[in-house]
Each structure stands twice: as structure tokens, then as C-alpha cells.
Design brief:
This protein is an alpha/beta fold and about 625 residues long. It contains 20 helices and 18 strands.
Length: about 625
């Protein structure tokens, strides 16, 4: 069933069109990712689909049965309305149904005419069925479930909505949309202002929903889990891809390869034809030249490759530091309530650490304590020999809003001429007039790139980054990941981008309730370990060398009896984990191939893939058992 049909929509905000003949059809059950670089018109298209903005040309047609919900980014709450009032307002129609049912029930009891009584009884039965279908008798539970899932504490329910922070207000708008249960959702950056736990809750909620949706997001893990179709908006037009973000990324690379070859071949043909015409226009081969000119005029044009340029980000290779880059001992900090305590940490040269934790847990405070920008309540931090720190502050306080970007990236006490600075900005995607704009007039993504360029200019060997992917589009994030992977120094960063953490980090510092945990591996390692081992908090497990305070409290426990006999030969835990992740990735790839429509045309191929999946899963079960034994006996 077609819920929404968009035909030849165009929109201008200047001489060049933002949307230039966009046509899209949205069907029931489709979960569509709308991807494109910053400034490509994604939010404009969503606003047109929602009816909040008129297109200059074309049409949008909604099916009569569609209940559309649009996640707005600029909420406006009336005074004195509490957080709970606003959330409950999304279910106002259910309250009206309940009130009507009560009124009809009273009317049935008062009716004296049999026919009228029968009519009212039938209406009451209909209302009861509708209330049961929509789970109207669990309204409070539904509201609490959504508010808790999006990170609201019960103590905040009575707080005026207008007094919430900007991020909290956006989360409340998302809660209202989810509670309203539209059958078509338009979601513009729904995971903004959510920590990892709340984002994963939202993913599961959306997967349970039967609603169709169009999603704009820079969270690649979110898109991978939630979406099943991808629309790429670029140069004012849309390209359609089957599958989630990862499927789109692969298909995009394949299409680009074909487009480049086709375009280059056509350009070569044109160049040869023009050269032949030029040399023979007035010679003996004049007739052949004229014939080629006519053929050239009839030649169908081939569009240039639909290539989205990613900035060539790069951090200069640094001077060598000592083997120990940073050592923290017994760090603790509290602001009214304890944020963290007993944190012990050692970072060695070449490692890449990610600092994770829920909103409000003190990640930035811990980062600033490690850098000496905030004094801890207790504990000490030592830097190693030759360590030069470069700090990317998520507020970009180092950038002066009143100067041009080309001046803003100038490092202190360094000879750095204008051409060098312009070349540096170009590496981070800021070229032409953009480099001459005042920093305060740049977009969020452009300011972020300028901040990263300034960080690169510092030529530090220890990069510390607080939320560096904020405001970066998918292509800039990919470029930043590649730049950090190529960097031969040391890195420590805070990020909610699981894809970024997975790709870049080799160690995690995870701030959890009442402890800080160290994990040797990336986010996939962490998720795997906490899912596989519900008792992973116990000391002695290889996945986490837990903070000192936790180890001390655990030291008083009676140790569980240890197994002394091995079922499997000795292997390092890290080697087992690497093989587990490799085989899990193989299973995921096999499932993707099995879901491909082309595969199902070949019965033998389907059977072969299913057999391979069964074989890999059998090996995984053995590896899981081996891993559990190794984590217990390898200490």
C-alpha cells in the first residue's frame, strides 16, 4: 500500500535548486534512510513531506488513512505544562475515548427507550473494543516506558517542560511522537541528544513498530539496525538503494566504479572525435569529419559520476613520545553527587582510547581531570616524557567566532603562513570563500571541521577529542576515522557514535554506575562481553580491569571455587575474541547474502549458504565455551 507519493518536487533558496525533481514513493512497512552530505536538502525535503513547507514545483500526496508524525527540532512548550503533561498530551485522543465511554455507559443506564438503549450499548461495545485495541488502560505505563527509555528520571516528570534544556526538550518531542503512534514517521536526527543506552532502546522500539518511516541520521549503527531502504539525496536528486546503511555504502562504491568507467570512456570518445574533426575539418577527410560531427551532436550525454567528495583529513605524523603517555591514579570527582571514584588508568604510546558512558555521568569532567583542566577531588595524573597534547573541545572554545576561519586555525607560537592555513582547511573540507568567512557564521559541521583543522595544526602526539563527530556528515566521519587510524600517535576521545568507536578504538574506558571499567577492545567487544557474561562485573575477568575502588570492595567477597581442569588447549583470551568476532562477522555476511533476492533464484546456493551458517554457528558455540574457560583460568 502506498502511503506517500512524491512527484517531481523542486525547491530553490537561491539560483541553484536544493531539490530538482525529487520523486519518491513510500509504502507501508518501509523504513527509509534519507542520506546525503550536509546542506544537500534533507531537512527541507522532510518539511515538504510533512506539509510544513511548500515546494516550488511538483506534488506530495498522502493516502487518506495516513496518520503522519514529524519530529520537529524546535519545540515550543507553553508555561506551566509539565514534562508529564506534554507526554500525556500525545495520547489525548485515548483520554477522550475513555471519557466518551463513561458518558455512553451512563446514558445506557438512563435510557428508557429500548431502541435507544440498544444503539448506545452498541456504541459502548465499539468504544471498549477500540480502547482495548489501543491498550488505553495502560496509558501511564506506556508513558513511563517511553520517558524512561529516552533517559528521563521519574523525578523530572513534574518539571515544567519549558524549563528543560534544549536536548531534553528534543527528547520530549521524540517521546510525544512515539506515544502518538503514527503510521508514517518522519524523523530528523532522532538520536541527537541521546546517549548510547537510550539510542539502543529507541532502535528496539522502532523495530517493534509497524509504522513506515523516513529517517535522517548520521548514526550509522542506528541506520544499519533500523532501516531497510536508503535514498541518497545529492545534487538535488535522489538515488534509490535497497537495504540499510552498510548495504548502501557497498552498492554506492560499486555504482561509482561503473559510473566512472562509463563516463571516462565517453569522455575519451568525445575527445578523440573532436580531435579528428579539428585535424580533418578542411582536408581530404572533410566528409568523414562532418559525419563524426553529426554523430557527436547526436551522442547521448553521460552524467559525471555521482561522487560525494569526502575531505582528505589528515593529522601530521608526530614526534615520538615516551612509552607511557598518561597515568592516572585513584582519581575521584563529585559535584553534589559522586561522578567517579578510584579511577586508575594507563595509556601507552600508539593506543586509541574511547571514553563511554551515559549522559550526565561525568565523561567530559573526567576528560578535563585527565588533562589537568579541572582539579580532581583526589588522585593524581602524570604525563610521560615528550607528550604534546592537542585538545578538541566539543564547545570549540578555542575558535574565536569573530575572526575568519583561515585566521582561527592559526596555532599559537608557530610560523604558519596564509597559504599553509588555506591548504590545511582544504584538507578538512573548507575551501574557497568558506575559509574566509567568520567562524561564528559557519554552520555546525563547518565549525567542527575548522576545530579539527586547528587540532591538526598543533602537531600534537596525544590527541584528546570530546565528541569530534558532532555535526559531521557520514562522509566526513569516515574521513576522520581514516585520519585517526593513520595517525601514529596516541588518541583519547569521547563519542556516542558506536560505529566510530568500533572502527577507531582499541581500548575503552566505560563510566558505569558506581564504577569505571577498562575494556581491551572496541564497542563490539564491550557489547559482546556484557551480553555473554551477566557476571562480568566480577574481578579477574579479562574484559575489564575494573577501577581500584571496585576491586577493593570486591576483595572482601568470598572467592568462588575455581575450575582447575581444562576442556580446551590454552589460548589467549584476546586471540579467542578476535576469532569470535571474525566468525560472527562471517555469519552476518552470510545472512546478508541469504537475504539477497538474486540468491533465492538459485536453490543450490541457498542450501549451501544455510549449511555454511550452521557450520559457523557450531564453531561459534565451541569458541564461546573456550572463551568462558579462558576468562576463568587464564589469570
Amino acid at each position: 500500500m502506498i502511503l506517500l507519493e512524491v512527484e517531481a518536487v523542486s525547491k530553490h533558496f537561491g539560483p541553484e535548486p536544493v531539490l530538482d525533481g525529487v520523486s519518491v514513493t513510500v509504502r507501508a512497512g518501509e523504513r527509509i534512510a534519507l542520506a546525503g552530505p550536509n546542506g544537500s536538502g534533507k531537512t527541507t525535503l522532510l518539511r515538504i513531506l510533512a506539509g510544513e513547507e511548500e515546494p516550488d514545483g511538483g506534488s506530495c500526496r498522502l493516502h487518506a488513512s495516513v496518520h503522519l508524525g514529524f519530529l520537529q527540532q524546535q519545540p515550543d512548550f507553553p508555561p506551566r505544562r509539565t514534562l508529564w503533561d506534554e507526554a500525556a498530551g500525545a495520547l489525548a485522543d485515548l483520554v477522550w475515548l475513555q471519557e466518551e465511554a463513561l458518558e455512553v455507559a451512563e446514558a445506557v443506564g438512563e435510557a428508557s427507550d429500548d431502541a435507544e438503549r440498544d444503539r448506545l450499548a452498541a456504541r459502548y461495545d465499539h468504544l471498549q473494543l477500540e480502547l482495548q485495541r489501543r491498550d488505553a488502560y495502560n496509558v501511564d505505563h506506556r508513558i513511563k516506558r517511553v520517558l524512561h527509555g529516552l533517559g528521563f528520571e521519574e523525578a523530572a516528570f513534574a518539571q515544567p517542560a519549558a524549563s528543560l534544556s534544549g536536548g531534553e526538550q528534543n527528547r520530549l518531542m521524540l517521546a510525544k511522537l512515539l506515544l502518538a503512534e503514527p503510521n508514517l514517521m518522519l524523523l530528523d536526527e532522532p538520536s541527537n541528544h541521546l546517549d548510547i543506552e537510550a539510542t539502543e532502546w529507541l532502535e528496539d522500539f522502532l523495530l517493534e513498530s509497524s509504522a513506515a518511516m523516513v529517517v535522517v541520521s548520521h548514526d550509522r549503527c542506528f541506520l544499519d539496525k533500523v532501516t531497510n531502504r536508503t535514498l541518497e539525496l545529492f545534487r538535488g536528486t535522489v538515488d534509490d538503494y535497497a537495504g540499510n546503511f552498510s548495504a548502501y555504502w557497498r552498492q554506492k562504491a560499486e555504482r561509482l566504479l561503473v559510473q566512472r568507467r562509463t563516463y571516462e570512456k565517453r569522455q575519451t570518445e568525445i575527445a578523440k572525435a573532436k580531435e579528428f574533426i579539428r585535424r580533418n575539418a578542411y582536408g581530404q577527410k572533410h566528409a568523414q569529419a562532418e559525419d563524426r560531427r553529426k554523430k557527436l551532436a547526436r551522442l547521448e550525454p553521460v552524467e559525471p559520476p555521482r561522487e560525494i567528495d569526502a575531505p582528505a583529513m589528515r593529522f601530521p605524523q608526530p614526534a615520538r613520545s615516551g612509552d607511557i603517555v598518561l597515568r592516572a591514579e585513584h582519581l575521584a570527582k563529585a559535584y553534589g553527587r559522586p561522578l567517579f571514584a578510584g579511577v586508575d588508568l594507563e595509556i601507552t604510546r600508539g593506543q586509541r582510547w574511547a571514553l563511554l558512558g551515559p549522559n550526565g555521568c561525568g565523561k567530559t569532567t573526567l576528560l578535563r581531570c585527565l588533562l589537568g583542566l579541572t582539579a580532581p577531588d583526589t588522585g593524581r595524573v602524570h604525563f610521560g616524557a615528550g607528550v604534546e597534547v592537542g585538545y578538541f573541545d566539543q564547545q570549540l572554545a578555542e575558535l574565536d567566532d569573530g575572526v575568519q576561519a583561515v585566521e582561527g586555525v592559526r596555532p599559537a607560537r608557530k610560523d604558519f603562513n596564509e597559504q599553509q592555513r588555506r591548504d590545511l582547511l582544504a584538507r578538512f573540507g573548507l575551501t574557497g570563500d568558506t575559509a574566509l568567512q567568520e567562524v561564528g557564521r559557519l554552520s555546525g559541521g563547518e565549525r567542527c571541521r575548522a576545530g579539527l583543522a586547528r587540532l591538526a595544526a598543533a602537531e600534537a602526539n596525544f590527541l584528546v577529542l570530546d565528541e569530534p563527530t558532532n555535526h559531521l556528515d557520514l562522509w566526513a566521519r569516515d574521513a576522520l576515522e581514516r585520519a585517526l587510524l593513520a595517525f601514529e600517535g596516541t588518541a583519547l576521545f569521547v563519542s556516542h557514535d558506536r560505529y566510530f568507536v568500533n572502527r577507531v578504538a582499541d581500548h575503552l574506558l566505560v563510566v558505569e554506575a558506581n564504577r569505571v571499567r577498562v575494556v581491551e577492545g572496541n564497542y563490539q567487544t564491550y557489547r559482546h562481553l556484557i551480553h555473554r557474561r551477566p557476571d562480568a562485573a566480577e574481578p579477574g575477568r579479562s574484559e575489564a580491569r575494573v577501577a581500584t575502588a571496585e576491586r577493593k570492595s570486591d576483595a572482601t567477597r568470598t572467592p568462588a571455587p575455581r575450575r582447575t581442569k581444562r576442556r580446551f588447549p590454552y589460548r589467549k583470551v584476546a586471540d579467542l575474541e578476535a576469532e569470535i568476532f571474525e566468525r560472527e562477522a562471517s555469519v552476518e555476511e552470510l545472512h546478508r547474502r541469504l537475504a539477497d533476492g538474486e540468491t533465492h533464484r538459485d536453490g543450490d546456493r541457498v542450501r549451501q549458504i544455510k549449511a555454511e551458517i550452521a557450520q559457523q554457528k557450531e564453531m561459534l558455540e565451541t569458541l564461546y565455551a573456550h572463551w568462558e574457560e579462558a576468562t576463568e583460568l587464564n589469570w
